[in-house]
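Colleagues,

For the teaching module next term, I've prepared a clean inverse folding example: a structure given as C-alpha cells, and then the sequence designed for it. I'd like students to try predicting residues themselves before seeing the answer, so please don't circulate the second half yet.
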C-alpha cells in the first residue's frame, strides 16, 4: 500500500498465509488449491453440477444437468426461483443433428433468458445464478404443501 497500489491481490497457500496477507494489507486473496478442492467436493456430492463460478457479488453461477423430473415441462411450471432459490439465466441445448455427409452428431446451442413457455429436454444444461450457501443446487423433488411428508404418511 505504501508503494501507491490502490488494490493488492495476493495468492495464499494456506489459511494462515491468507491471514498474514490480510494483516499486511492485501485487499483480495486468492487460493487456487482451496477453490479447486471446494469444486471437486461439490462435483463428488452433486455429479449433475457441471461447473460453478463464485462471483464477487456473493452469488454463484452454475451449470447443472436438467434432471429427468424437468424433462418435457415448461420452465414456468418448474418455479425454479420459488422452489429452488435459483434464477435461470440460460439453457444449453444438446440437440441431435445430421451432417452434410449423413453422420449423426450433437450440437450445443444456447437459449439466453428463456421464457416460461420454453420446454426443458433431456441433455439440457441449466445455467443458473444463486446466492452462495442459499441452496445446495439440488433439484430433487420437494413435497408440495398438499402432499404429506414421510412421517405424516406413516401415521
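(Answer key — instructors only)
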Amino acid at each position: 500500500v505504501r508503494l501507491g497500489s490502490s488494490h493488492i491481490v495476493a495468492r495464499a497457500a494456506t489459511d494462515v498465509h491468507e491471514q498474514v496477507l490480510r494483516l499486511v494489507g492485501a485487499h483480495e486473496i486468492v487460493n487456487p488449491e482451496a477453490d479447486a478442492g471446494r469444486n471437486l467436493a461439490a462435483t463428488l456430492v452433486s455429479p449433475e453440477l457441471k461447473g460453478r463460478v463464485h462471483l464477487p457479488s456473493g452469488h454463484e453461477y452454475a451449470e447443472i444437468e436438467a434432471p429427468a423430473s424437468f424433462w418435457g415441462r415448461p420452465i414456468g411450471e418448474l418455479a425454479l426461483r420459488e422452489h429452488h432459490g435459483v434464477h435461470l439465466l440460460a439453457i444449453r441445448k444438446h440437440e441431435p443433428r445430421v451432417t452434410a455427409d449423413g453422420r449423426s452428431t450433437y450440437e450445443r446451442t444456447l437459449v439466453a433468458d428463456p421464457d416460461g413457455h420454453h420446454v426443458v429436454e433431456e441433455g439440457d444444461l441449466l445455467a443458473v445464478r444463486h446466492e452462495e450457501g442459499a441452496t445446495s443446487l439440488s433439484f430433487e423433488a420437494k413435497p408440495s404443501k398438499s402432499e404429506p411428508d414421510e412421517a405424516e404418511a406413516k401415521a
